[in-house]
From TrEMBL:
The keyword Transmembrane helix applies. Keywords: Membrane, Transmembrane, Transmembrane helix. The keyword Transmembrane helix applies. The lineage of its organism: Bacteria, Pseudomonadati, Bacteroidota, Flavobacteriia, Flavobacteriales. This is DUF3307 domain-containing protein. InterPro entries: Phage_phiKZ_Orf197. The chain crosses the membrane at residues 36-53, 98-116, 122-143, 170-190, 210-230.
Amino acid sequence: MILFIKLVLAHLIGDFLLQPNRWVIHKEVNKVTSKYLYVHVLVHFVVTMFLLWDFQYWKLVLAIVISHYFIDLAKLYTNPFFKLRSIPFFMDQALHILVLYICAYSGNLIGQTIFLLEKIDWALLTAIVFVSYPAAIIMGKLLEGMSDRIELDHKSLPGAGKYIGIIERLFVLAFIILGRWEVIGLLITAKSVFRFNDLKDSNSRKLTEYILIGTLLSFGIAIVTGIIYIKF
């Protein structure tokens, strides 16, 4: 486990802390001919070897940086095919972490994977999934009749309300599992403060009631989910 953690730390340092934005731009423009692509790979090799502090790992580190080079190169050439730049970014990071995992547990990869799968709390995973998109869809169906009567605010970011709801339900679920019920009250207060100016400016009782119902319903779903998880 320590080996994997050190490899991940080295990756975070090399990919984020020691990679200036001008390197990223230069790589995107010049791709395989970019000098910073090779400097970036070299930085990863040096940082990883420094953190491991054991020369016997040089073959392992070499395999990691070579794979890092080809993964980065693939991302540079596939970037134009994606409308959202975040998609190739997260795919790139996922592949890097997968390589680190395989290298760290190469001696017992199948056994370690089975061990991790056996440690998964499937009830918790189900609760987390439920309070995200399924709960958002359920709320949309329950509030469908009311939302038709509310004037849309075209200044809002697309889907912002849905994502805010998902994040707040995840926070509520986490606080319930940790037994910190008082923090939920602070979360409701904070949301009310942020919403106060919007409601005051709109001067719409319907909008106020709609947001209040939606907020209570969102928190209620997360609370019930948390209680069910704890009890069963």
